[in-house]
Amino acid sequence: MPTEHLSPLDLAFWRIESAAHPMHLGALAVFEAAPREPGPGPGPGPGDCDAAVRAAALLTARCAAVPGLRRRIHDVLLPVGAAAWSSDADFDPARHVFLVRTDDLQAAAGPLMARPLDRSRPPWEAHVLAGPDPGSFAVLFKFHHALADGLGALALAAMLFDEGPPLRGPARPVPAPQPGGSVLRSLPGILAARVQDVGQALEIGASVARAGLPLGVPAALTAVAARTGTRAVAGLALDLDDVNRIRKVAGGTVNDVLIALVAGALRRWLVDRGDPEPEGPGPRALIPVSRRRPGGAQYGNRLSGYLLRLPLAEPDPVLRLHRVRTGMDRNKEAGPARGAGAVALLADHVHPLGHRLGGPLVAQAARLLFDILVTSVPLPGFTFSLGGSRVREVYPLAPLARGHSLAVAVSTYKGTVHYGLVADAAAVPDLAALAEALRAELDVLVREVS
Known about the structure:
This protein is of the alpha+beta class. The chain is 34% helix and 21% strand. The longest helix has 29 residues, at 183-211. The protein is globular, with a radius of gyration of 23 Å.
């Protein structure tokens, strides 16, 4: 079987990781208790058993049957600096599925997100967090970004849940068929493609340079203190109907409203904590964009992105939304393969050795490219369950790049918007206050459009 090398972008995610800045993404799935099944006598029935223990046992039993969860990464001799996938012959589910008892699900998720994955094993983990009562539990999934992006991670995790509507899992990349004819006849096309690729790389590089160094970024987002490697996690659930009410009156898309809520919450949070009122163009948000084709899901990453200045200096919430909408419309008009936000595409133009030697430098440069990550992970409309317990909430969690103190991820599940916040615990000790600022900002926008 031919060697399956990591794609350039997957390799970049693998190489830029450090102990203090692990490059895994995650999701905290909070479950409802399974319905109680009455027993034959006065004693407890099967439904009274510890749901978390049952969930851990199911994940342990099911993960070995998912090929994508048995894949590990190893270095190869050629090309120099490259890495490849292989099946882990010693795969042990007990090294990937863990049971943790806690009184606070979100508080437990922070230290677990701070802990890097074992790079000698398939790069994923599932932590079943048992709450204070037998029916209360959550599962924190962690997938290395080299293994999958948000959509790929969703497909992998879905294979571990109870049977439901089919969700296509990642498939191995299929090599493009080689055209017939001689090498000489295909050479002009190859050269033309190379020239086009180089031109695109230069255009993206120029856009990155034009984006410039941070200007007017609020002090709380400069992440000067974000070097501890500690993590805090907070989640917030909002009503999707409220978001749609705002969208219908003010215009734009649901995603425009969700981004505007982040901008307004940041402004509110900074002012409430006593920082100076934001001025200037605002922090640069990197908005990842999936480049996957429908039905063409595969392992790894197919990502580009948009770069958007969050209008924190604008005091009017409706005008903030308008400015977000205008900026996103401008990005969409240019497309995800152009502009400073498409910096991820530059990975395709770097030799594997460059990723290996330059990974630490690239990681340190993240702070120069953007100030905050705001990403959206779409979820399917059906209900996930595990051992009969239904998923009630899903909080996506993004990795925190070096020099950054905050990352925001959002998903919509069963009529509810779920914001997942990951922060450097020392730089942002009041992360819960930022989560509540999101709720306050939604309330204000709903009143403004009513």
